[in-house]
Amino acid sequence: MSIAIADQKKRVVLPGANPGDVFDVQRGEDGRYVLVKLIHPSVTGTHTTEEVKAALESAPLTARMSWDALKRLTREP
């Protein structure tokens, strides 16, 4: 068991941590701290620019209501 001491800026050095590592800090009622290392999920299923453009052209975005209906909902009488 190693001991770490906080400095003036409340920092503690973790021996197994690397720069940029992210931790969830939880403090228990008994005053203990628990650090849980958060792992960023790997990005899968990325699409190329051409695939995205083709998808937008095949299914363009359309409004679900008319402009007149939107005006009636958002304007004061």
Précis, in short:
The chain has helices spanning 49-58, 67-74; strands at residues 22-27, 33-38.
Can you describe this structure?
Helices cover 23% and strands 16% of the residues. By secondary structure, the protein is of the alpha+beta class. It has a two-stranded antiparallel sheet. The protein contains 2 helices and 2 strands. The chain has a domain at 46-77.
Please give a handful of descriptors for the protein shown.
alpha+beta; 77 residues; 23% helix; elongated; 2 strands; 2 helices
Strand order of the largest sheet: 1-2
* Beta-strand proportion: 15-25%
User: Percent range for helical residues?
Assistant: 10-25%
Q: What's the number of helices? A: 2
Low-confidence stretches at least 5 residues in length (pLDDT < 50)? Answer: none
Main sheet characteristics: 2 strands, antiparallel
Number of strands: 2
Please give the alpha-carbon distance between the first and last residues.
71 Å
Shape: elongated
SSE layout and pairings?
Layout lengths: L21 E6 L5 E6 L10 H10 L8 H8 L3
Antiparallel strand pairs: 1-2
